[in-house]
């Protein structure tokens, strides 16, 4: 049981560190997939991790790359089907026709490198009022209550321990009246 607990904590730590790095590094982002246009590669509710084009992890935008770009209705993640030096044509894998417009290479926000199935549902839930309460506020409150209880336990434990009597003769033993010192 301890091994399983340690492994879970280890993987949770890796996820937190990776997510933190993605959040802090410029151009690295997480996106929640909103439609099934890229099915079977990923589908609605998945999270994708995208890195900047021409970065060490992302490489160059090429035919076959899955890219993220912004539109007026939000970010879109589609595969590059045509490429020239200035723009790309994209298409969702599940769509019958390519997207009706070309995307300037400078407008590409990222190249998809990894996806996490169904985690987008949890991310969307946390952004709701109920999700924020259940996932952030309630655990934080419970953690504070637990810490206060532990502090109070320690304070009362120290108050209950007897204070050692100082012996005037210096031998570490206290004597009552009438005890013999012989």
Label this structure with key terms.
seven-stranded antiparallel β-sheet; 7 strands; alpha+beta; Umud Fragment, subunit A; 35% helix; 182 residues
Commentary on this structure:
- It is a single chain.
- The chain is α+β, with helices and mostly antiparallel strands and 182 residues long.
- Among the domains are: 27-117, Umud Fragment, subunit A, CATH 2.10.109.10; 128-161.
- Helices cover 35% and strands 23% of the residues.
- The chain contains three helices and seven strands; from the N terminus they run αβββββββαα.
- A seven-stranded antiparallel sheet has the order 1-2-7-3-4-5-6, covered by helices on one side.
- The longest helix is centred in the C-terminal third of the chain and has 32 residues, at 129-160.
- It is elongated.
- The mean pLDDT is 83.
Topology:
Elements lengths: L1 H23 L4 E4 L14 E5 L14 E6 L2 E10 L3 E5 L11 E2 L3 E9 L2 H8 L2 H32 L22
Radius of gyration from the CA trace?
Answer: 30 Å
The termini sit apart by 58 Å
Overall number of strands = 7
Uncertain residue segments: none
**Largest pleated sheet:** 7 strands, antiparallel
- Amount of beta strand: 15-25%
Helical segment tally?
A: 3
Which percent range fits the helix content?
25-40%
Give the overall pLDDT as a whole number: 83
Q: Which strand order does the major sheet show?
A: 1-2-7-3-4-5-6
CATH class of the domain at 27-117: Mainly Beta
- What are the secondary-structure elements, in order, as H or E? HEEEEEEEHH
- Shape, per Cα inertia axes: elongated
The CATH superfamily of the domain at 27-117 is identified as Umud Fragment, subunit A
Structural class, by secondary structure, is: alpha+beta
**Which topology of the domain at 27-117 does CATH recognise?**
Umud Fragment, subunit A
**CATH architecture identity of the domain at 27-117:** Ribbon
